[in-house]
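A quick aside before the break. I want you to see a complete sequence-to-structure record at least once, exactly as it would be stored in a machine-readable document. Don't worry about memorizing anything.
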Amino acid sequence: MPAKDTVAKITKMTFEEALAELEEIIRRLEGGNTDLNDAITAYERGTALKRHCDDKLRDAQEKISRIKLDEAGSISSVTHELPKEK
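That is the input. The structure line, written in tokens, reads:
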């Protein structure tokens, strides 16, 4: 599990920053040139980044479900579901 200070830094990241770093970690791990200890550390950080991205997406989904403008410009509440992970 990542250290608390690492998790705190991740929670300050934007979705885009976290996703970009997660994609870089995946690229490095798929490359197969990482030693075991570094791979484990990267996997742990990647897991924390994925969790952060999931949280950001969930927050966005909640905001979308709360606000919708209809054709007349009136605000109504509608739920828009994001696709579930496979």
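Two observations worth writing down. The mean pLDDT is 85. The longest strand covers residues 68-69. We'll return to this after the break.
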